[in-house]
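hiii, so i know i said id send this last week but things got crazy w the move. better late than never?? heres the sequnce for the chain we talked about at the cafe, plus the structure i predicted for it. fair warning i was half asleep when i ran it
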Amino acid sequence: MYIRRYFGFVDGKHDILDESEDWQYYRLSNTYSANQFLGNVVGLEINSNTCIIDDVKLELGDIGTKYSDYGDNNIVYQKMLPEYLWDDCYENSVSGNLDFSLQEDAPAVCSDGFSRLCNADEAGCNIYTNVKDRDDQVIAQVSIQDYCPEECNNYDLYIGAKDYFNSTRGAKFIPETANTCSATDIGCTEFTNLDILNSGGEAKEYYTSLKQCIKPSENDCAAFYVWQGSNNGSYQLESYILKKAEDTNEPAVVEMMPVFVMKIYIIYLLLILIIILIVINFITLMVKFPIIYIQNNNLFMKIVILISNVQENIE
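okay and structure toks below
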């Protein structure tokens, strides 16, 4: 059995019909390019003189279903908007670029129990309702590539929150079939201990936070001594193993201000600078153009008069 598309093209898909006294179910599928017009006719070619075929069904989808008579299922009855209301209801129903969208100020009768005509770009647009949440509805146009098997339901992109080891990241999975963890395990990350692994032991370890350090060596680290005292005792010589500087025998010093502290410090300095500039400009204008503002605030009047007196003394 072959699927033959008209215009003389055969896609090569076929199925062998086995001999049997019982009815058998066969299914063939073909994906048509969305950008190629092939008409609305699909031909079936059956190369057999003795085979009896019954209940042939052509349907759109990824999975074949049992036979049903055309027109028996999914019948919808609609009361269309009568033509005498078209001019009052539709944007443009006469000529040119027809637009069957309802006018913004269309009378209430236009949507009172009537179904309107649709535009060409609205073809295939439907309301899809979440079977688990009937209030969750999406209006969309779908193609054959948008459908998925039932076992892929709820497969989606989920965003993982930032934790100690990882930034915000995404992962695609089905929550119902994914591995779950308790709230106490949030942020827990698996690590491999190479030292234990090389010794033949269990290498997997789990942490929610780690303190970064370096592995001591003769070239990178050295012993440093310091006298330490307390209120309750005399000074004692203490020894510390620290990373040493590259060119000297002194301890390596890391001076780095946290990024968020640095940002706050810079913003604080900019605000102070802006305030200083505003005050300087205000004083300059007051010296050049002495004006006594009559205000209820006595302190403001004293300041303005004082600045005016300074200008008079300068002159």
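btw The chain has four domains: 83-146, 152-212, 215-255, 259-314. thought thatd interest u
miss u guys!!
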